[in-house]
Amino acid sequence: METKLARIAEVAKAKPKERFTSLAHLMNKQMLRDSHLKLPADKATGVDKVTKAAYGVQLEENLDDLIARMKRNAYKPQASRRTYIPKDEKSKRPLGIPSYEDKIVQHGINQILQAIYEQDFMECSFGFRPGRSQHDAIRALDQIIMKEPIRYVVDADIRGFFNHMDHEWMMKFLEHRIADPNLLRLIKKFLKAGVQEDGEFKPTDEGAPQGGLISPILSNIYLHYALDLWFETTVKRECVGRAEMVRYADDFVCCFEQEWDAKRFYEALVMRLKKFGLEIAEEKTKIIRFGRQSEVACKEVGLKKPETFRLPRVYALLGQRQE
Questions:
Q1: d(CA 291, CA 248)
Q2: Which of 65, 192, 259, 307 would bridge with 288, disulfide CB 3.0–4.6 Å?
């Protein structure tokens, strides 16, 4: 299976416009068994309360039944179990915990999507990618600010990104690289599976629940097309001075040499995200003076020192690791 995935990655890298027509067959018993073995045993359970140990008691029979349902298009993901974790001192972040069998299927899909899209993702993207950590994102941002002629930073925040990803756009983005209707149908089923909170089912007409194994890569694919490519091919080309971006999942910081470029980008960003069903959290988004010459520039306009900014998700994850 690793050889097949490696071959897909080779083709995806060599042929950036290739659309893969036959992928669902990779979701065979071998891949699903491997996914079961790789999944951690101590994670929270979904709505059915099934654990890895319980599923593994009759693993072969369970996998045979799962594959049979997938082949006749009878497999239907269960709703994710809604729970909440602290986001900051005042708010909580909603998570959607899939059932264990759904985790197995999502793990397999994730491997296929990674094989393809890791060849497409850009250098500015760091979140939830193999071999790219929070430290790498901070290091890249430090290099840009310290070595490039950066004077302004757009510290941007997307309001409720995971809750508002547009499903139609998500499927259109996937179709750029995937032409297998069976795999596309399976991914759409997960997007539409809904969530269950306090025993009540709630449909998911938009978004992808955080906590699902495919949500991180789907978010990266969404922002690859909605943000990264646009910044690289359009924004940077139209800027007078230097422009760079660092993105970690849905958190991103854009650095500019010229104030005019930063202001034009901010205005264009609002319209760009709106096109894809997203919006800027204006109260958390700002343009600040920052860079090697920022202290002098701030004093010239009566400011004592430059404002600060941060990649919230990066620092949150680093804090969790330190704890």
A1: 20
A2: 307
Decide if 214 contacts 57 (C-beta within 8 A). Answer: no
Question: Helix (H, G, I), strand (E, B), or coil: what is residue 167?
Answer: helix
The answer to whether residue 320 scores a pLDDT higher than 90 is: no
| Four-residue CA torsion sign, 309, 312, 314, 320 | positive
Cα gap 8→12, rounded to integer Å: 6
Crossing angle between the packed helical segments 134-147 and 312-322, to the nearest 10 degrees? 130
Distance CA 152, CA 265 (A): 11
Q: Which residues pair with 247 in a beta bridge?
A: 125, 252
Residues 230 and 277 sit within 8 Å (Cβ to Cβ): no
**What phi-psi label fits residue 280: left (phi over 0), alpha (psi between -120 and 50 degrees) or beta?**
beta
Question: Which of the residue ranges 4-13, 123-132, 214-223, 294-303 would you say has the lowest mean pLDDT?
Answer: 294-303
pTM reported for the whole predicted model: 0.91
Measure CA of the first residue to CA of the last residue in the chain; give whole Å. Answer: 37
The residue type at 40? P
Compute CA distances 278 → 16, 203, 241, 300, whole Å: 27, 19, 27, 37
List, as own/partner pairs, every contact residues 9-13 make where C-beta atoms lie below 8 angstroms and the sequence separation is at least 24, other chains included.
9/115, 9/116, 9/118, 9/119, 12/115, 12/116, 12/117, 12/119, 12/120, 12/177, 13/119
- What is the tens place of the pLDDT at every residue in 122-144? 999 998 999 998 899 999 999 99
Strands ordered across the beta sheet of 200-202: 92-97, 80-86, 195-197, 200-202
Are 211 and 95 in contact by the 8 Å Cβ rule? The answer is: yes
State whether residue 107 is helix, strand or coil.
helix
pLDDT at 290: 82
β strands within 42-194, DSSP E = 80-86, 92-97, 152-157
Question: At a CB cut-off of 8 Å and minimum separation 6, what does 170 contact?
Answer: 191, 208, 218, 221, 222
